[in-house]
Amino acid sequence: MAQANKLAVEDVQRSAAAMLGSYEDADAVLSAMRSAGLIGEQEYFQTKIGYLQDEAKIRIQALKDENTLLASQAQGKAKSLEAERQIAKNRAEIARIEQQTLTKTTVLTVEAAAKRNQEAQAVEEQGAKLRSQKKSK
User: How many CA atoms lie within 13 A of 52 on its CB side?
Assistant: First the structure.
């Protein structure tokens, strides 16, 4: 049973790693599109936040699935103790992921607001320049 448990946990981890790899690829494409000017700044930030939150959900769900497997398949006192330790580690990791995601989302939200302000200021400055040129004529 221990081998089956280990294989099931590895399957959960592999599946999560595959999904996360897809997000890393999509993030690289998103950054390239931003650099090339193919998407606007606000779309970039919204998509980036979405990727970040989706990645966190995948990581958290994988840890929860692992905890479920560990809890259901632990037999014997030593195995149960080992499973409980791993479950506790996974719960701590879930809390860390949630906090990290909140922090990164806040940072991206602030960066998006700063970019919006810069864009608005640039538009205002351009408008003032045009008004000034009109008055000069």
Answer: 19
CA distance 20 to 52: 10
Identity (one letter) of the amino acid at 106? Answer: T
The C-alpha R_g of the chain, in whole angstroms, comes to 24
For 41-97, the pLDDT digits (tens) are 999 999 999 999 999 999 999 999 999 988 887 666 667 888 899 999 999 999 999
Q: How many CB atoms lie within 10 A of CB 13?
A: 14
Q: What sections of the chain are H helices per DSSP?
A: 2-35, 41-73, 77-136
3 state SS for 80-92: HHHHHHHHHHHHH
| Confidence at residue 49, expressed as pLDDT on a 0 to 100 scale | 96
Q: For residue 7, what are its two tokens?
A: 């294989």
CA pair distance 95, 45, nearest whole angstrom: 24
102 three-state secondary structure: helix
